[in-house]
Specification:
This is DNA-binding transcriptional MocR family regulator. The protein has helices at 3-17, 29-36, 40-52, 92-99, 122-135, 150-162, 177-189, 204-212, 230-238, 261-274, 331-341, 347-359, 362-387, 413-422, 452-472; strands at 56-59, 63-66, 108-109, 172-176, 195-200, 216-223, 227-228, 242-247, 278-281, 306-311, 322-326, 393-394, 402-406, 425-426, 428-429, 442-446. The protein is an alpha/beta fold. The two termini are 15 Å apart.
């Protein structure tokens, strides 16, 4: 970093902290030069840089002043325009390399896929684990390994019923988190070379699964507001080559898109008409901000073409790794694959979750969690409006905990990620969410992976880094 950039960043920080307020006069170029033992040219360059960021203004014969900053309303990203051709996928090496970066306690984890662990009822879960294991009969440690603990499946079935969905316990398979359920479902439905429909951008896990199973991906235009384009879905299904769809209709990762109920019903009708199954990734639906919980596509599935996959990992206990698939006609196929791969999800974890649900309080925990998420979303959106360039586009989802940020095309998200890590902030770069490395100028940010003050501080740091990259181009 040059001396003038360092000086500009120091003044930038003083303005954002409130130490320098709107209307305050900055020291003259000569005064700053003498106080900081810098050349007047260096100080002038720093002031010019701050002017270009909209932070200060020069007044004739008066000097430089902190200017009023009313953040402009943030623009929203438009519907994506992915490649219209299917792709093989080779993304796993990039994902592993990025996920293996050092993430010490000093790093602000805006690139994390998980919530701040202090938001989970850790003590209550620990008590439930102890209680469940004391009560667990020895034979229960080896029974129901393939399908999962009956009591937990009954509780999940009851939660389906509350959503207006009939899901018998025999249709529910407990898995090692949702990813296990999703991967087993994809494996049960495909053969190498088959074509899978995905959203664009999409979470990198389905891309990894497609690569592992030697499948092909076709990513479809997706709106940050209401999800994947049904016109594109129908066109792809009508071509007759699609084997399965893998969508996240409720608070999609990374866009946060929520497909309206009427659109979900239309999607279910399309699947039935073309007899193509949907793997519904539904791990964020409980994290809604609106007045009522959204319904899944599964609620509109009259003919059994939807495999519904979810978990407690995003809302309650990430490390317990308890998920499930409500698989309908494919239950036995998925169960057979599960026996051949992992055999069973952790019995102690299942017993602990079951005891916790039986004690009550899960829905109260979810209400409190949603309030925290909504507050953190507002903090990060405001921080982006304050510190990022004016042409930045940002989603403002009605649930989940991610923002999708679209930057100037002059920004390389991978380069920004490296600079951010050096500055103690992580992010997830856009190319991870594409089969063909698109979205190179986009990033995903987690607005509730750490404390509120760290979220704001980390976001401001990223904003300064983006400005600095643009200043150099």
């Amino acid at each position: 970093m040059t001396q003038y950039e360092q000086l500009a960043d120091e003044i930038h920080a003083l303005i954002h902290s409130g130490s320098l307020r709107v209307g305050d006069r900055l020291p003259s170029v000569r005064q700053s030069s003498e106080r900081r033992q810098l050349s007047q040219s260096t100080v002038f360059q720093a002031y010019y840089l701050l002017e270009s960021r909209g932070l200060i203004e020069a007044r004739p014969r008066s000097g430089y002043y902190v200017r009023p900053r009313v953040p402009a309303p943030l623009q929203r990203p438009k519907t994506s325009r992915p490649s219209p051709r299917p792709h093989g996928v080779a993304i796993n090496d990039l994902v592993v390399a990025l996920l293996n970066q050092p993430h010490g306690s000093q790093v602000v984890p805006l690139g994390s896929a998980f919530l701040d662990p202090t938001l989970f009822p850790v003590d209550r879960l620990a008590r439930s684990l102890g209680t469940a294991m004391r009560r667990l009969a020895p034979e229960k440690l080896i029974e129901e390994l393939a399908t999962g603990q009956l009591r937990l499946r009954q509780q999940i079935s009851q939660r389906y019923a509350a959503d207006g969905i009939h899901a018998g316990v025999d249709e529910i398979i407990i898995t090692n988190g949702a990813m296990d359920a999703l991967n087993l479902s994809l494996q049960a439905l495909t053969q190498p070379g088959d074509l899978v429909l995905l959203e664009a951008p999409t979470f990198y896990a389905p891309l990894q699964a497609i690569e592992r199973l030697k499948l092909r991906a076709l990513q479809l235009p997706t709106s940050p507001s209401d999800g994947v384009s049904l016109e594109s879905v129908e066109a792809a299904l009508a071509a007759g080559e699609v084997k399965v769809c893998w969508f996240m209709p409720s608070f999609q990762n990374p866009l946060g898109a929520l497909m309206p109920d009427e659109k979900k019903k239309s999607l279910a009708d399309l699947l039935a008409r073309y007899q193509v199954p949907l793997i519904e990734d539904d791990v964020y639906r409980d994290l809604y901000f609106g007045p009522r919980k959204p319904r899944p596509v599964k609620a509109f599935d009259r003919d059994g073409w939807v495999i519904h996959c979810a978990s407690f990992s995003k809302t309650l206990a990430p490390g317990y790794r308890v998920g499930w698939a409500c698989a309908g006609r494919w239950t036995r196929d998925i169960e057979r694959l599960k026996v051949m791969s992992s055999l069973s999800a952790s019995i102690p974890s299942q017993a602990a979750i079951s005891d916790y649900l039986a004690q009550g309080g899960y829905d109260l925990h979810l209400r409190r969690l949603r309030q925290t998420l909504l507050h953190h979303r507002a903090l990060m959106v405001d921080a982006i409006a304050e510190s990022f360039p004016a042409d930045t586009k940002v989603t403002q989802p009605e649930g989940g905990y991610f923002l999708w940020v679209e930057l100037s095309r002059r920004i390389d998200a991978l380069e920004l990620m490296r600079s951010a890590m050096a500055a103690g902030v992580s992010l997830t770069p856009g190319p991870l969410f594409s089969a063909d490395r698109r979205f190179a100028h986009c990033i995903r940010l987690n607005y509730c992976s750490t404390s509120a003050d760290k979220v704001v501080r980390g976001t401001h740091t990223l904003g300064k880094l983006v400005h600095r990259m643009l200043d150099k181009t």
